[in-house]
Amino acid sequence: MSTPAEDDLLLERQLCFALTVASRSVVGIYKPVLERMGLTHPQYLVMLALWERSPRSLKDISDALLHEPATLSPILRRLEEAGLLTRERVPGNERALAVTLTKAGADLREQATAVPGTIMERLGLSREEVADLHAAMTGLIAATRRPAPVLAAQPVHAAQPG
Fold it and tell me: Where found in the cell (predicted)?
């Protein structure tokens, strides 16, 4: 464990704050681009997973997007209502759900090919810079998934009333 520094609690030094603002800002840049395709950002992520491989099970999509299946259900329902995918129970396993692109969903991929370049241009980043940022974020995600070390109990001092 590193030694605490006096400015460790400054807002601008908080990793969580920088990530929250960056995430909100980047997703905000995607919004008008995706709206032209009739998609929200969460829907775009589901479509990306399906453009990689279709059909896919709900569990497989859930694992790919690091989301709970229950979180994805309303997103899938809206995409199905838009005619971009179908959801069907797997024969012989009524608990499993197969998600398959429709022709319209597969055709939307052509329009989506412009999205990464548009976002890079809007951010003023090269493909290499985006790859570097992605690698750093992927490393950070992996770090959050490692088991936490067992720390020695340290007293917590609660604020005193008054």
Answer: Cytoplasm
Angle at 70 between CA 58 and CA 115, to 5 degrees: 65
Residue span of the structural domain in which 52 resides: 14-141
Q: Which amino acid, 54? A: S
State pTM to two decimals. 0.84
pLDDT in tens, 46-94: 999 999 999 999 999 999 999 999 999 999 999 999 999 999 998 888 7
22 domain-assigned: yes
AA identity, residue 30: Y
Helix axes 41-52 and 58-65, enclosed angle (nearest 10) = 120
Please report, for the domain that includes residue 111, its CATH number. Answer: 1.10.10.10
Q: In which residue are the tokens 């790859």 written?
A: 131
Residue whose token pair is 């859930």: 62
Name residue 117's amino acid.
G
Q: Which amino acid is at 110?
A: E
Kindly give the residue spans of alpha helices, DSSP state H, lying in 36-102: 41-52, 58-65, 69-81
Q: How many domains does one find in the chain?
A: 1
Where does residue 124 fall: left (phi above 0), alpha (psi -120 to 50 degrees), or beta otherwise? left
27 domain residue, yes or no: yes
The answer to whether the beta carbons of residues 57 and 88 sit under 8 Å apart is no
